[in-house]
Amino acid sequence: MTSDASTSRPESDAPEPPPLPLLHEPRDGVPAVIDTPDDLAAAARALAAASGPVAVDAERASGFRYGQRAFLIQLRRAGAGTFLIDPEALHDLSSIDTALRGSEWILHAATQDLPCLADTGMTPDAVFDTELAARLLSWPKVGLAAVVERMIGVRLAKEHSAVDWSTRPLPEPWLRYAALDVEVLIELRGLLADELEQAGKAEWARQEFLHLLDFKPTVHAEPWRRVSGLHTIRAPRALAIVREMWQAREDYARQTDVAPGRVLPDAAIIAAAKAAPTSKRSLLSIPAFRGRAAKSQVGLWFTALQTAARLDDAELPQSGKKTATPPPPRMWPGKNPEAAERLTAAKAVMASLHEQYEVPAENLMTPSVWRAVCWEPPQPLSAQSVDEALSALGARPWQRTIVAGPLTQALAAADA
């Protein structure tokens, strides 16, 4: 029997579904920004009198201001409504922290906001991270807008996500955007909790959320080595130029409260390290220094160059930072061929577990954790010793239950 071409329609010609409705106005309207002690005290009383979890978000001015501090904090709790707080005007938000003691905070991508919230005196007793929940469910898109579309069926406007939140006064459209970000979090939390339960991953999420309470940003021993393009620099004297110019930029950025990249791009530091100019004129002849920001502080940059030039050889940094952690995997074959064999075997195991348990590999276990065990396995090698090693490196119980046994077998096979 042949199909009737007049009644069949190619899949590519199928009509597109209508766009989801846009969430464009908070249900209670856009609240005024709280920037006085009296208004802050009233907000704390209202939040304390309400009940249930609290939706929390923070807006930073990354790329505009120095550091990662919050310039607006949004809160919403059933029975209290939405609050927009200006931490720059108030600084100490410990009264809000006290009002929320014992409550669960709902955040999206909690590791981005917890440090700047802690700087204001706010630390949670419990967390539900909607982004992490979506990751554990192995969803392809885990941004807030994508998760809201999938679970609630509305669109969030995100056109103000990268604006300069240090602007004062904050424009009303920005405040509407900020209020809407916490508008959906409480409902989203309930829906995601049900999804985790149905997927058999609720306990995994509970352990991950508990782990977030101890989250601290990574502190790098030599932060100047994170300059983009440093891998192209090998000579110790050139590395010294990078280090001195990075420190000069850091000090100036901190003093002026400007993002370091706006003061002087990483590309300019790398170009100066390669050229090693011996005068201000030759420094300014480098294309990366022709911008107004770089020119305005040419004396500062040239002083850093002179400092690097005067260093004794013993004071110069060396290529490749010294660290107790394993080197990048690409260097393993040359530095430790046996570890490289273990790494290859472990990669295959982790890929298989990723498929089996339907969870992203980086959430199944942080790669640096299982790589450290590959680099230096515990002795004698056993499932118990591997489990203990993973635990010491911060792996959660659910992760170790899944990974420890197969990883032990892979390490033993590679060594054999």
Automatic annotation (TrEMBL):
Pfam families linked: DNA_pol_A_exo1 (PF01612), DNA_pol_A_exoN (PF18305), HRDC (PF00570)
Domain of life: Bacteria
Top EC class for this record: hydrolase
Keyword Hydrolase: yes
Chain spans, region Disordered: 1-31, 313-336
HRDC domain segment(s): 235-315
One MF term in the entry's GO annotations: nucleotide binding
Species this chain originates from: Spelaeicoccus albus
EC number(s) given by UniProt: 3.1.13.5
Protein name: Ribonuclease D
Key words, A-Z: Hydrolase
CDD domains referenced in this protein's UniProt entry, alphabetically: RNaseD_exo (cd06142)
Coiled-coil parts of chain: none
Taxonomic classification: Bacteria, Bacillati, Actinomycetota, Actinomycetes, Micrococcales
GO BP annotations, alphabetical order: nucleobase-containing compound metabolic process
